Amino acid sequence: MIKFTIQEFFIGYPFQNPALVCKTQDISSHIGCLCGLQTLALRSLKHPNLMKLLLHVLLMGFVCFQTFAQESQTDTSKVYLEVEVAPTYEGGMEALYREFVKKIQYPVIARRIGIEGKIFIQFVIRKDGSVSDVSILKAIGLGCDEEAIRVVKEATHWKPGLIQDKPVNTRMSIPIFFKLGGSPENPLIIVNGKFLGRLNELRDYFAKLKEEDIIAVKDIKELKGLKKYDKKAVEGEVGLMIEIAEK
């Protein structure tokens, strides 16, 4: 009768000394195998049933290692929406927005037309604190979105999110504000000779345009010129005649 412990195995045949030990832990949950040198007393290595058992264990160990490697790779690349400890920026969010204000260069065309508003941007804080996968959720257009992406990519002083005290990849979203100084104007907008409406009514329209789409912008200040496009125009209003590249 062969006596052995099912919990631990070593492969000792045909070698004199044990070369590999595989300790299985909860194979059904794919936790995998842990290797190390252990001791096992076997009365006989010549017993055919034992050899079959050892071959089976070796095969199971290989499957466990494969599964463990695959799961490790999945966990490394997984991005979490909810974590136990959220990513934090060095100095807090106030420091992050101060850095944005310092670095943002307001696009010339957007300033010229009067584009302002709130951009929602999402990105991933990786396990090492780096930033990746930056994209726009809500745009305002004319180069502002690209500028928001640039400053977010350059904000690298992050501490990653944590799950069970271990750093993980975490997806975040924040607003970035573009605001012009002074009293906001609501000019008449004429695009390629056609009156489209007033600026505040066309925010969604401009959100789809890039800075390079604009060829030229010209002011219309005379009331006579404004009434040519909108009979409701009054003295003191301004208009913008915008030439846009045809697509």
Q: Which stretches are low in confidence, meaning pLDDT under 50 for 5 or more residues running?
A: 1-44, 57-74
Main sheet overview? 5 strands, mixed
Structure classification: alpha+beta
Tell me the radius of gyration.
33 Å
Terminal-residue CA separation: 85 Å
Question: What's the SSE pattern?
Answer: EEEHEEHHEEHEEEEEHEHE
The 3D shape can be described as: elongated
> Count of DSSP helices?
6
Helix content: 25-40%
- Percent strand: 25-35%
Mean pLDDT: 79
Number of strands: 14
How would you sum up this structure, described in words?
With 247 residues, the protein is of the alpha+beta class. It is built from six helices and 14 strands. The chain has helices at 48-77, 93-103, 108-113, 144-154, 203-207, 223-227; strands at residues 9-11, 20-24, 33-35, 79-80, 88-89, 117-125, 131-138, 158-159, 161-163, 166-178, 188-191, 194-198, 214-220, 239-244. Strands 4, 6, 7, 9 and 10 form a five-stranded mixed beta sheet that branches. β11 (188-191) and β12 form a beta hairpin. It is elongated and about 70 Å long. The termini are far apart. Mean pLDDT is 79; it is low at 1-44 and 57-74.
